[in-house]
Specification:
Blueprint: E1 2-8, E2 13-21, E3 25-30, E4 37-41, E5 45-50, E6 55-61, E7 70-73, E8 79-85, E9 91-97, E10 106-111, E11 117-122, E12 127-132, E13 138-143, E14 150-156, E15 164-167, E16 179-186, E17 191-197, H1 208-214, H2 216-220
Antiparallel strand pairs: 1-2, 3-4, 4-5, 5-6, 7-8, 8-9, 9-10, 11-12, 12-13, 13-14, 15-16, 16-17
Length: about 220
């Protein structure tokens, strides 16, 4: 039986142990107020777990593929995105309403690459970044409450595969250059910085509040 464990760093001891997984746990993501978390497992099931009661609130087979999937909770939207594989080994993205896991709100194909995708969500812009080990590209989607809910934006393209990626804190972004995200990409023998920016308006200083009101989808299209 696989378990998720939480540690008290000050006491240097285990504070909580959550069981209920029958296979390898691939990742988990907290909801906005940390009352629940969603986990992805190699047994293909996504579980919604209340860690304080050690109870599985709900669970569903998220993706049919055998390679595994990952999940991320979408902040105050209280929805979950999963990224995984179909039976035909096609990578895809699915959006789930936490209140009803009987079927995804939308499920769409991403590409035919072989690496497991890791999703990164930015609650400030509503943008989700998809990247995987061995991928050169980082795909961007906007998630909102308007059908079809998952809107493709653009992607960072590169023929250099990534051994790993990391999104830096927003304090690292250069707002004057319209930067909305700053990433580091680990390559074979060097680290490459990646800057995500949006088109500059006629204003001398691009304001993030203006960007959030317009919405990422309208700015980039």
């Amino acid at each position: 039986m696989w378990s998720t464990r939480f540690w008290d760093l000050e006491k240097e001891s285990e504070a909580l142990k959550v069981e209920g997984h029958s296979d390898t746990i691939l990742n988990f993501s907290w909801n906005w107020d940390a009352s629940l978390f969603a986990s992805s497992s190699k047994d293909k099931e996504m579980r919604i777990i209340d860690p304080r009661s050690n109870k599985i609130v709900n669970k569903v087979v998220a993706h049919d593929g055998a390679k595994g999937f990952k999940t991320v909770w979408l902040g105050k939207l209280d929805k979950i995105v999963t990224v995984g594989f179909s039976k035909s080994s096609e990578r895809g993205i699915a959006l789930w309403d936490v209140r009803n896991l009987s079927t995804p709100m939308i499920q769409k194909a991403v590409d035919q690459q072989s690496g497991i995708i890791t999703p990164f969500y930015d609650p400030d812009t509503g943008v989700i970044y998809l990247c995987g080990k061995g991928d050169g590209n980082i795909k961007m989607f906007e998630i909102n409450d308007e059908a079809p809910y998952v809107h493709y934006l653009t992607e960072h393209s590169s023929n250099i595969p990534a051994n790993g990626t990391a999104q830096l804190p927003k304090q690292m972004c250069n707002v004057k250059d319209c930067e909305i995200a700053y990433w580091l990409k680990l390559c074979k023998d060097y680290v490459e910085p990646i800057h995500f920016t949006v088109p500059r308006t006629r204003m001398e200083l691009f304001q993030m509040t203006c960007f959030l009101q317009l919405g990422m989808y309208s700015v980039l299209h």
